[in-house]
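Quick illustration, no need to memorize.
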Amino acid sequence: MHNLELTARLYKTMLLIRQFELYLAEIYHTDAIKSPVHLSVGQESIAVGVCDALEKEDIVSNTYRCHATYIAKGGDLNEMMAELYGKRTGCAGGKAGSMHLVDIKRGILGASAVVGTTVPVAAGYAWAMKRDKEKTGHQRVVTAFFGDGCTEEGCFYETLNFSALHQLPIIFICENNRLAIHTPIEKRWASEQLCERVATFGIKTHRITDADVFKIHETVSNALQDIRQGNGPIFIECDTYRWLEHVGPRDDHNISYRSQEEFQRWKDQDQVTRLAHMLDESHRHQIQAEVKAAIIKASEFAENSPYPAAEELYTHVYAS
């Protein structure tokens, strides 16, 4: 039996991500959203299971599919929506958009649209945090999120080696949806033994095959405990499935690069639905109402916010 408080908290965050992104999908055909969106519908349990286990001072490094992690780490929803609208009140001043969300005050490093590039940046931050422990006595931890496509980049293996060599306080989180845009993993990898490849660097690895949010939470909690004691880095591979297209709001199962049967199998074990059934009806409805209100508030905030002034085009370009 899972802790009721934890169940409600995980459900609320996963539902907020799910409903927020479905709202984006609904309005994407209008001119409100000013940048492409890479949605995490179906993949929410990884970001939530990981980030709920973190301390406030811990750091997350993200990919361009970054809405879920931004929300799960406590990023400001109003600022996120305003950023998608290209408004001055956005988390990056309305100049970065969906693929470059950032909220340093809440421990969210800036995301990047280039596959793999955030992984060595995360290691650099982990190096700084290891040195910072000498002053504070407490080990903060970086979690680096990336997809399976990232593991085909040279910088991924270079970073694994550097992190293991220097025992950096970093957790590598691979969100393995088995797709690099439209190319399935079996057409890209000679062997699917990713954890075994990572283990050759002397890194402890874990694999979760069913996206169970409680398993993810427990695995990360244990990993954090190990790393805070100086036993890092750690690698966690989480199998998952994105319900919608690679970029954009549509269902693309008619393209035939993946099967409807696989989609249905993942829908049958959807973690949002699973946790909803663990709560009593009144509690569930209360959470649903709070989530709906938060999204409406964020949308109104974005709509009523101003666009950046023309002179802001030149700010943050050069050091001042």
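Strands lie at 59-61, 142-147, 170-176, 179-180, 183-184, 204-208, 234-239.
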